[in-house]
Amino acid sequence: MPLDHISILVPISKLEDMITFLTTSLGHLGFKELMRPIPTVVGFGEQQPYFWISTFEPKPGTEEVAADLLKKNHFAFTAQTIEEVRQFHVAALNAGATCNGEPGPRDHYHSGYYGAFVHDPVLGANFEVVCHTHKGD
Fold first, then answer.
1. DSSP-assigned letter for residue 2
2. How far is CA 49 from the centre of its chain?
3. Which of 13, 26, 97, 106 could form an S-S bond across to 113 if both were Cys, CB 3.0 to 4.6 Å?
4. For the domain that residue 63 is a member of, what is the CATH number?
5. ∠ CA(71), CA(19), CA(130), 5° rounding?
6. CDD domains annotated for this entry (predicted)?
């Protein structure tokens, strides 16, 4: 059974920065903001929203704990080609992300796995774009 949608939490003060990072680094895959049913909830996807951002306001004194928890998140998006994986990596780094794994094959996951990883500049979460049909450079 495929996943229908997912929602991540972002501090309200970082909402616009996260939107900019996502659309800048994943836009070449057709990923875009599709709706804001209310000002603090945003849906992204290609045709229909499947990746949602909801905001929260950390309680005073909990900001550091919240930031640490958000850094532990991992999100992976599928690319059709290894070129799209490479484009993601460049676009994400240009948008302020830090490299967490250069584009390349990762046969220890499975044969044909080609991915790239970054930590986003807003939350520090791990974002990946992967092509599952890599047959060599």
1. -
2. 14
3. 106
4. 3.10.180.10
5. 65
6. VOC_like
Q: Give tens-digit pLDDT for 39-91.
A: 999 999 999 999 999 999 989 888 888 889 999 999 999 999 999 999 999 99
**Residues 75 and 69: beta-carbon distance below 8 Å:** no
Which DSSP helix (H) or strand (E) runs through 17?
Answer: helix 15-26
Q: How far is CA 121 from the centre of its chain?
A: 11
Answer whether residue 137 is part of any domain.
Answer: no
Count of structural domains within the chain: 1
CA dist 82 and 63 (Å) reads: 37
> Could you tell me whether strands 49-56 and 6-11 are parallel, antiparallel, or unpaired per DSSP bridges?
parallel
- Residue 137 clears pLDDT 60, i.e. is over it: no
| Closest C-alpha to 10, from 126, 118, 120, 123 | 123
Per the confidence metrics, is the pTM higher than 0.90? Answer: yes
The dihedral formed by the CA atoms of 114, 42, 97 and 78, expressed in degrees to the nearest 10: 0
Sequence letter at residue 59: K
Asked whether residue 1 is domain-assigned, the answer is no
